[in-house]
Design brief:
The chain starts with a strand and ends in a 23-residue tail after the last strand. It is about 40% helix and about 5% strand. It is built from two helices and two strands. The protein is mostly helical.
């Protein structure tokens, strides 16, 4: 388990990128939106740099075994390992 401190600049950047993607989808009627819609948003590259900086400052506060995680019924336990 990792602790990240709140970063309002990151939150603002993330919301701006997502709002731009949302507006693009509404304007173009994309249902579902193409995977590249977020990548094409202004500020996306800077958002990635902010994520890397936040991750570098993360502090491990607990080592929790996967067998101890409480997951909802039907949760996909391998979601992050699929490509």
């Amino acid at each position: 388990m990792f602790r990240l401190w709140r970063d309002d600049a990151y939150l603002d950047s993330m919301l701006a990128v997502l709002a731009g993607a949302w507006a693009h989808c509404l304007a173009h009627g994309s249902q579902p939106p193409p995977a590249s819609v977020v990548l094409a948003q202004p500020g996306h590259a800077e958002l990635l740099h902010q994520i890397v900086a936040l991750a570098a400052g993360a502090v491990c506060v607990a080592d929790v075994a996967s067998s101890q995680l409480q997951l909802p019924p039907g949760a996909d336990t391998f979601a992050f390992w699929r490509s």
